[in-house]
Amino acid sequence: MATAPGEDDVSLPMGKRIERVVKTVAVAAIVTMLQALPGSASDKLEKPTGPVILTVEGKIARTNAGKEARFDRKMLEALGMHTLKTSNPFDTGIHTYEGIRISDLLKKVGADGDTLVAYALDGYAVEIPVADTVKYPAMLAMVSNGKVMTVRNKGPIWVVYPIDKYPELKDEKYSSRSIWQLERLIVE
Q: 10 Å Cβ neighbour count for 11?
């Protein structure tokens, strides 16, 4: 019966002991590299433990529920929260939003598409070019002025563009992409 390195191999010559350790380390390294490849078991997303507030599907590599990637608030926050102070066409004044960058979410799910079809709880849908998420740090806001957003105040998720930083965003096409009560993204 073979033994693991360090177990009962004192009787082996030093060269054989070193060879056994090197082989074990090499096998461990190969297993680790294989687990890191896209589509491997380690590439799966964790499962939500709280209520799901966003589902992503379509051309994505990482899922946690069939062909979907489902996220609860904690999972989204773990992607890295950012703060954005800006005005928007649906509220007066400057507001402070906190949320995640859409580009970070797309990286997390391994998105491979050119368009996002965004769906709100009320059935409203709009197409958002993935290029928007690269050119502008568009955000999935979950907090507005220090308060967690709820369905009553355009939450739980609102797509917010930094329109004060980029004057070209003060256009109807970007206003229509500022979907609130977001519940689903389909990557096409």
A: 7
Distance CA(118)–CA(124), nearest Å, equals: 8
Output the tens digit of pLDDT for each of the chain's 188 residues: 455 555 555 566 766 666 665 555 544 444 444 444 444 444 679 999 999 999 999 999 999 999 999 999 999 999 999 999 999 889 899 999 999 999 999 999 999 999 999 999 999 999 999 999 989 999 999 999 999 999 999 999 999 999 999 999 999 999 999 999 999 999 99
Cβ atoms < 10 Å from Cβ of 171? 13
Q: HEC profile for 67-115? A: CEEEEEHHHHHCCCCEEEEEEECCEEEEEEEEEEEHHHHHHHHCCCCCE
Tokens representing 77?
Answer: 């926050």
* Beta partners for residue 179, in sequence order: none
- Tell me how far the alpha carbon of residue 121 is from its chain's centroid: 20
Question: What is the distance between the alpha carbons of residues 83 and 106, in angstroms, rounded to a whole number?
Answer: 19
Tell me how crowded residue 60 is: count the other CB atoms within 10 A of its CB: 21
Q: d(Cα 52, Cα 80) in Å, to the nearest integer?
A: 18
